[in-house]
Design brief:
The complex is a heterodimer of chains A (about 300) and B (about 120). By secondary structure, chain A is of the alpha/beta class. In chain A, helix 2 crosses helix 3, helix 2 packs across helix 5 and helix 3 packs antiparallel against helix 4. Chain A folds into 2 domains: about 160 residues, Histidine kinase N-terminal domain (Globin-like), CATH 1.10.490; about 110 residues, STAS domain (Transcription Regulator spoIIAA). Chain A is about 70% helix and about 10% strand. In chain B, strand 3, helix 2 and strand 4 form a beta-alpha-beta unit. Chain B has a single domain, classed as Transcription Regulator spoIIAA (2-Layer Sandwich), CATH 3.30.750.24. The longest helix of chain B is centred in the first third of the chain and has 18 residues. Chain B is built from 4 helices and 5 strands. With about 120 residues, chain B is an alpha/beta fold. The radius of gyration of chain B is 13 Å and the shape is globular. Classes of the chains: A alpha/beta (about 300), B alpha/beta (about 120). At the A-B interface, helix 7 and helix 8 of A face helix 3 and helix 4 of B. Chain B: This is STAS domain-containing protein.
């Protein structure tokens, strides 16, 4: 048994491991077709990647396999990282889940380990050394692919959150000095804050006197958000604008009353149409329909 | 720094130029009351556009001025509250419920004129 503290012995071990690794790589390259098929078969058996067709699975399996062998050979995961990112980009929109991706990488690991067991079953000592060389590399690969997949997903989620944030609070001018704020979707604390900020800015830039906040598209409201809404109404008043809230659903109305939120200062109107009519009344507009007269003239 | 108070017809305009110390605020209150008495003004506009922050003392004093001038027969309108200031005030529970507010000087004058001509 070599002394592990002896530097030459360590170098010797390293060399031996490199030799084993290159032997391993040539084994994997030689048996590329069978191992790949075996892997694809087991993916099908485990019902992973059901969103992809069989041909797609096979072609992706080929690329992953080749990348896998390359990592074992060179020890550099950069090419694999790029490939994993690219693969994630392609398969995430098709509904592939994290467990599936981890599943197939671990399956490949198992398939290759099996083939190593088979090859070296005669000599336990060599098998042990081969596995010593193979396992860290294989773990690193599984890690890389998994992490890249999750990172890609997170990137997409961040992007979508950004998009939702931008879409979420438009402030629209419908008449001189009249703004409308249609709110769709769940209001949480952050969105409510953003809404207030945009509304108050909008009041200043558009010199609004009346604002209609339409919450028809809001399914539920909690007490924090309700209080925030009341504060927004007060703050708007400080800037000289009166606020009309429309589209409070009966569920929300019940919740607010049950929670005991004080809405006595809030001017609420049933629907958006009513809200706009009320706003026009406050601003002194009268809407006159001209279409009817013209139609009468023609007859 | 003292706040200049301008006479504009039946109204007074107090335009705050920079951050106010507590003494300035008290000075403003005394000046406004003196001018209202002298000119028999019907309305006062306090323009706070240049204030980026408004502490509780300033807000309370402004509300006090509004209440006092009302007792002398003049309506006070606070104009030009910045969005950030407005929300901070509401969060601190100072929502000026019994004080008139308007977007800017022009709006404030329009509000006073409407109220003045209306009565």
């Amino acid at each position: 048994m070599a002394d592990p503290t002896d530097p030459t012995a360590v170098n010797g071990q390293q060399d031996a491991r490199d030799d084993l690794l290159s032997e391993l790589v040539s084994h994997l390259s030689n048996n590329r077709t069978e191992l790949r098929q075996e892997w694809a078969r087991r993916i099908g058996e485990a019902r992973l990647l059901t969103a992809l067709t069989e041909e797609e699975i096979f072609s992706e399996a080929t690329s992953v396999y080749d990348n896998y062998v390359e990592v074992l050979e060179t020890g550099s995961v950069e090419a694999l990282q790029d490939y994993a990112r690219n693969l994630s980009e392609r398969i995430i929109p098709r509904g592939v889940e994290t467990d599936e991706v981890l599943g197939i990488v671990l399956l490949l690991r198992d398939v290759l380990a099996r083939s190593l067991f088979e090859k070296y079953q005669a000599d336990f000592q060599v098998l042990n050394e081969v596995l010593d060389a193979y396992e860290p590399a294989a773990n690193r690969i599984a890690n890389t692919v998994g992490v890249n997949f999750v990172q890609e997903r997170e990137r997409i989620i961040r992007q979508q959150q950004e998009a939702i944030r931008e879409l979420s609070t438009p402030v629209l001018q419908v008449r001189e000095r009249l703004l409308i704020l249609p709110i769709i979707g769940v209001l949480d604390g952050q969105r409510a804050r953003q809404l207030t900020e945009q509304l108050l800015r909008g009041i200043r830039t558009n010199r609004a006197r009346v604002v209609v906040i339409d919450i028809t598209g809001v399914p539920a409201i909690d007490s924090t958000v309700a209080n925030h809404l009341v504060q927004t109404v007060d703050a708007s008043r400080l800037m000289g604008a009166s606020v009309i809230i429309t589209g409070l659903s009966s569920e929300i109305a019940q919740t607010l009353v049950t929670l005991g939120v004080d809405l006595s200062k809030v001017n609420a109107v049933g629907d958006l149409q009513g809200g706009i009519e009320e706003a026009e009344r406050l601003l002194g507009y009268t809407v006159i329909s001209g279409a009817v007269d013209k139609a009468d003239d023609r007859v | 720094m003292a706040v200049p108070i301008l006479k504009q017809g039946p109204f007074l305009i107090a335009s705050i130029q920079s951050a106010l110390t507590d003494t300035d605020v008290l000075q403003l209150r005394d000046d406004v009351m003196a001018q209202v008495t002298r000119h028999r003004s019907k309305g006062i506009i306090v323009d706070v556009t240049s204030l980026d922050v408004m502490d509780s003392f300033v807000s309370r004093s402004l509300r006090g001025i509004a209440m006092m001038t009302r007792l002398r027969g003049a309506e006070t309108v606070i104009v030009g509250i910045q969005p950030e200031v407005a929300f901070a005030m509401v969060q601190l529970g100072m929502s000026f419920e019994d004080v008139q507010t308007a977007l800017d000087l022009e709006e404030g004058l329009a509000l006073l004129e409407a109220g003045f001509l209306g009565t």
